[in-house]
Design a protein that fits this description.
Elements lengths: L5 E3 L11 E4 L4 E4 L7 E3 L2 H10 L5
Length: 58
């Protein structure tokens, strides 16, 4: 099984470190409060681009 490295958002410091974490592969997100729980798997890079570019509807 491949080792996945996770990183938290730099904005997570204000809420006791509770934030989402992104895998180094850019294919998984997880809740930092539940690191052994399920992860959202998919095209996270596409999700980030959609959020940045605004086509998700405001």
């Amino acid at each position: 099984m491949k080792q996945v490295r996770w990183r938290k958002s730099s904005y997570s410091g204000g809420n006791n470190g509770q934030c989402v974490e992104l895998a180094h592969t850019l294919t998984e997100l997880r809740d930092s409060k539940n690191p052994t729980g399920p992860a959202l798997i998919g095209r996270i890079d596409a999700l980030i681009a959609a959020v940045k570019n605004g086509p998700l509807g405001h």
